[in-house]
Every structure is written in structure tokens, then in C-alpha cells.
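User: Let's play a game. I give you a shape written as C-alpha cells, and you guess the letters that built it. Ready? Here's round one.
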């Protein structure tokens, strides 16, 4: 089961006014939705929510929602932040079965840049996707998708179909044929080539 537990309260008022009143009371408003049940306006104490958020295991992960003596697994789908203070002002939770598959975006991280001939020669890594949309077990969502740059040279590209996914995880049709990153000529390499051509002509 999930490591993070959120103790929620049900909000009587929804909408902008209700959300503002909730925040003034030291709570962060949110919405629980998904499944066959209607959406429910909820709230969590700001301190508890911030503590969960700072673990890095809240957004996009399986979380246990508790309401009194009842509990259920949910996925934290979205957190909205204040544009000036960067504090959380609203969140969305999605009902799931702990062993069901969910569609979710997972961050993409790159490894072994020093083992890429193209980058060692001064090439530039162009990243097309910072997140990859996958189907994953709700209790087995990967923390990240690793792209190994070993052996890649200038002109090479990494596509989603090239990646080895964790067990039970598949790339959705939306991103299946997508290019994640490519290695191209950097401006410095282009300048060096042009200088070499000028020298040859002289």
C-alpha cells in the first residue's frame, strides 16, 4: 500500500468562494473524482499536505486517502500552485484500485552523457519530451523513465519504442512513436566545420 496517507475532510462549499474559505481556515482544497462515483470536494490540513508534497512521492503516486475510519487508494493527479508564493492552492485526487492500471505521465531523465560519442565531441542534446505517458499498475508507477545515452552519436535519436520499460509498464499510443531526444550539431561544432572549410579553401 502507499507510503503517504492524507487525512481529508469533506467540504460543504465548492467553487471559488468555498475554496478561499477553506484556505483561510488553514486547509488546502481539493477534489476527489474518478470511478463510478460523483466528484467530492475535500480538503487537507496545509501542514500535512505540504509535508507529503515535499517527500517527492505525492504527485503521480499511489496515496492512501483516509476519511474517518474509511480509507481508499487514490492517485494524486494534479497540484496547482499560487503564481507568486508558489504554495499549493488546490489538488486533484483520482480514485483507483491499488492493482488496476492507470494512465499517467512519468518524468524522463537522461544518464551516461559521458558515454555518448556525439556529446563528447561537443554535440547538443535536444530533449523533445520531459515526460512520457504510460500505462502502469497503480501500485507500481515508476519514479522515472531512464534514457541511456551510451553510444549515441551526432544524428542519433531516442524514440519511446526504443526504451525498455519496467515490468507491467507500457507506453501509451499517444507517445509510442514519439522521439524523446536527439543529438545534433552544436553551434560550436558548426563554427569549427566552417572554419575548417575556410582553411581548406585558402
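Assistant: Ready! My guess for every position:
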Amino acid at each position: 500500500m502507499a507510503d503517504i496517507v492524507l487525512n481529508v475532510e469533506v467540504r460543504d462549499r465548492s467553487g471559488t468562494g468555498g475554496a478561499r474559505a477553506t484556505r483561510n481556515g488553514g486547509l488546502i482544497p481539493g477534489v476527489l473524482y474518478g470511478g463510478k462515483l460523483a466528484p467530492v470536494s475535500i480538503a487537507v490540513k496545509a501542514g500535512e499536505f505540504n509535508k507529503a508534497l515535499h517527500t517527492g512521492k505525492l504527485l503521480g503516486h499511489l496515496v492512501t486517502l483516509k476519511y474517518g475510519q474509511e480509507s481508499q487508494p487514490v492517485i494524486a493527479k494534479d497540484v496547482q500552485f499560487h503564481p507568486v508564493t508558489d504554495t499549493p492552492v488546490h489538488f486533484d485526487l483520482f480514485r483507483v484500485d491499488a492493482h488496476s492500471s492507470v494512465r499517467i505521465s512519468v518524468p524522463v531523465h537522461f544518464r551516461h552523457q559521458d558515454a555518448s560519442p556525439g556529446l563528447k565531441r561537443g554535440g547538443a542534446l535536444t530533449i523533445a519530451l520531459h515526460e512520457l505517458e504510460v500505462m502502469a499498475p497503480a501500485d507500481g508507477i515508476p519514479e522515472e523513465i531512464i534514457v541511456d545515452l551510451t553510444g549515441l552519436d551526432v544524428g542519433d535519436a531516442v524514440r519511446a519504442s526504443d526504451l525498455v520499460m519496467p515490468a507491467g509498464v507500457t507506453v501509451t499510443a499517444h507517445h509510442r512513436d514519439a522521439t524523446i531526444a536527439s543529438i545534433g550539431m552544436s553551434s560550436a561544432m558548426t563554427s569549427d566545420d566552417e572554419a575548417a572549410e575556410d582553411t581548406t579553401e585558402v
